[in-house]
Specification:
This protein has 432 residues and is α/β, with parallel strands linked by helices. It has a domain of 197 residues: 3-Layer(aba) Sandwich (Rossmann fold), CATH 3.40.50.1100. 42% of the residues lie in helices and 15% in strands. Strands 3-4-12-9-10-11 form a six-stranded mixed beta sheet. Helix 6 links the parallel strand 5 and strand 6. Helix 4 crosses helix 5 and helix 15 packs across helix 17. The longest helix is centred in the first third of the chain and has 19 residues. The chain starts with a strand and ends with a helix. The relative contact order is 0.14. The model has no long low-confidence stretch (mean pLDDT 93). The structure holds pyridoxal-5'-phosphate. The site of pyridoxal-5'-phosphate has 17 residues, from helix 6 and helix 12. Pyridoxal-5'-phosphate (PLP) binds next to helix 6 and helix 12.
C-alpha cells in the first residue's frame, strides 16, 4: 500500500517513507491511497490478543516491512505495558465502560502510537544506516510518550518543545528526567500553539529539515493515526452484538487525532454507530460539530492541558474525506464541552457513583453521557498524572510507582524563545 498527501502535490510514499518523514513534502498529511475493508475479517479478529490484533491490522498498511519483522516491532511496542490486557475495557456502570488507555510507560494513551513509532524509527535507522532526528511540540503527554519511545535508541535524537510552565510538573519530569543523552526537552515561551507553529516553521525550512532528516512526532504522523485505530477495534470486538449496535465512543480530544482514528476505522468497515467529541473549554471542535463553524478562539489554559488546543492539526485529514462544512453530513458525531469547574464536579460524581477515579481529560468524556447509548469513554490518562486536581476533587492522591521514581531525578531542560531560528540553532548543534 502507498500513502498520499491531503494536499495532493506529493508523490505517493511507502509506509516506511511516510513514517520517516512525518509531514508530506507538500506540507500535507499522509493518508492511505485507498482504505481497506475489514468487514470480512471481524469474525477472524475476535479474541485476538492486543499485539496479535495490532499486527493483523498494521500488516495491511505496512506492506513494505517483512511480516516477521513487523511482528517483532509490534511485540516490542506493547511489551512495556503494565496491564496484561494492554487496553482493558472496564465496566464502570450500566451501559458505561472506560477504555483504559493509560497502562503504557508514560501513563497516557499516546504510548500506544509512540511506542510503535519509536520501534519503526529504530528499524528505519538499522535498514537505511541513517540517523533520525525527531522533532515535535507537545502540550504535555505527546512529548513524554515520544521521549520514552526514542530514549536510548541509537542513531536517533529527539527534540521536544513544550510551553514553559503550562504542562504539569509530573509531565515535565517525564520529559526532563530521563537521563538519556539523546533526549532534549525544550521549554519555550508561549502556548502550545506557539510551540507547534515554531515546529511547523522549522519543518517548512526544507533544506534544514531534509539535511538533518528531521521527522515529526506530533499527532500528524501516519503511524500514530493507524496505531490508534487498533484500540477502537479491540474494544469493539469485546462488546456483545447488542452493545455494538448501540455504541458511542466518547473521545476526549483537542487535536482531533484520537477520534479521527476511530472514525477512519469506521470507514474501513467496522460498523461503529457513533462518536462523541468531548472537548474542554477550548471548544473549537465542539463548536464545529454543533454549529458547522470552524474558528479558533483564544486559548484558555485548563485542568486538562493535553486538550488545550485551538488549531486541530488532524482536521486536515478529516476535511480530505468530507468537503463542505454542513454538520449534517457527519451524523455519526455528537459533541460536548466541559469547563474546569465541571471537570472537578465530574471527577467527584464518577467517584461517588461508581468508585472509579478518572483523570481530568477523561472527566471531559464523562460529561452528559447519553443514557440511550452504550458509552465507551476513552480513559486517556492515569489519574496519577494529575494528583493536585484529583486531590481537590475527591481528597485522594492517586500515585503510580513509575512517577514516584521520577521525583528524585534531576530536571534537565533548555529554556528557549518560541523562535524558529533559535530552535534551529539548538538542533543543529546537537543533531545526530
Ligand atoms: C493528547 C491527549 C488528549 C487529546 O488527544 P488528541 O490527539 O488531541 O485527540 C486527550 N487526553 C490526554 C490525556 C492526552 O494526552
Amino acid at each position: 500500500m502507498r500513502f498520499i498527501s491531503t494536499r495532493g502535490k506529493a508523490a505517493p510514499h511507502t509506509f516506511s517513507e511516510a513514517v520517516a518523514v512525518g509531514l508530506a513534502p507538500d506540507g500535507g498529511l499522509f493518508l492511505p491511497e485507498s482504505l481497506p475493508d475489514f468487514s470480512g475479517d471481524l469474525a477472524r479478529f475476535a479474541g485476538l490478543a492486543y499485539p496479535d490484533l495490532c499486527l493483523e491490522f498494521m500488516r495491511v498498511f505496512a506492506t513494505d516491512i517483512p511480516p516477521a519483522e513487523l511482528a517483532g516491532i509490534v511485540a516490542a511496542s506493547y511489551r512495556g505495558f503494565s496491564h496484561p490486557g494492554i487496553a482493558p475495557l472496564r465496566p464502570v456502570g450500566k451501559g458505561i465502560y472506560a477504555l483504559e488507555l493509560f497502562h503504557g510507560p508514560t501513563l497516557a494513551f499516546k504510548d500506544f502510537a509512540l511506542q510503535l513509532l519509536g520501534n519503526l524509527y529504530g528499524r528505519q535507522c538499522r535498514v537505511r544506516g541513517e540517523s533520525i532526528n525527531a522533532l515535535g511540540a507537545t502540550s504535555g503527554d505527546t512529548g513524554a510518550a515520544a521521549i520514552h519511545a526514542l530514549k536510548g535508541h541509537s542513531g536517533t535524537a529527539i527534540f521536544i518543545l513544550y510551553p514553559d510552565g503550562r504542562v504539569s510538573p509530573l509531565q515535565e519530569r517525564q520529559m526532563a528526567c530521563t537521563g538519556a543523552g539523546n533526549v532534549f526537552a525544550l521549554a519555550v515561551d508561549g502556548t502550545f500553539d506557539d510551540a507547534q507553529a515554531v515546529v511547523k516553521a522549522v519543518f517548512g525550512d526544507r533544506s534544514f529539515s531534509a539535511g538533518l532528516r528531521l521527522s515529526a512526532v506530533n499527532s500528524i504522523n501516519l503511524a500514530r493515526l493507524l496505531a490508534q485505530c487498533v484500540y477502537y477495534l479491540h474494544a469493539w470486538l469485546r462488546l456483545s452484538p447488542a452493545e455494538r449496535d448501540n455504541l458511542e465512543f466518547v473521545v476526549p480530544t483537542g487535536n482531533f487525532g484520537n477520534v479521527l482514528a476511530g472514525w477512519m476505522l469506521r470507514r474501513m468497515g467496522v460498523p461503529i454507530r457513533g462518536f462523541k467529541v468531548a472537548t474542554n473549554q477550548n471548544d473549537i471542535l465542539y463548536r464545529f460539530f454543533t454549529t458547522g463553524e470552524y474558528r479558533a478562539g483564544a486559548l484558555q489554559p485548563s485542568l486538562a492541558p493535553s486538550m488545550d488546543i485551538q488549531a486541530a492539526s488532524n482536521f486536515e485529514r478529516f476535511r480530505h474525506y468530507c468537503t463542505g462544512s454542513d454538520p449534517a453530513a457527519w451524523p455519526e458525531f455528537t459533541a460536548s464541552r466541559c469547563s474546569d469547574a465541571e471537570i472537578t464536579g465530574i471527577i467527584r460524581r464518577v467517584y461517588r457513583d461508581y468508585g472509579y477515579v478518572i483523570d481530568p481529560h477523561t472527566a471531559c468524556g464523562f460529561k452528559d453521557l447519553n443514557p440511550d447509548r452504550v458509552s465507551v469513554v476513552l480513559a486517556t490518562a492515569s489519574p496519577a498524572k494529575f494528583p493536585d486536581t484529583i486531590r481537590e476533587a475527591i481528597g485522594i492522591v492517586p500515585t503510580d510507582p513509575s512517577l514516584e521514581a521520577l521525583k528524585s531525578r534531576p530536571i534537565v531542560k533548555h529554556r528557549l524563545p518560541a523562535d524558529p531560528e533559535a530552535i534551529k540553532a539548538f538542533i543543529s548543534a546537537r543533531a545526530v
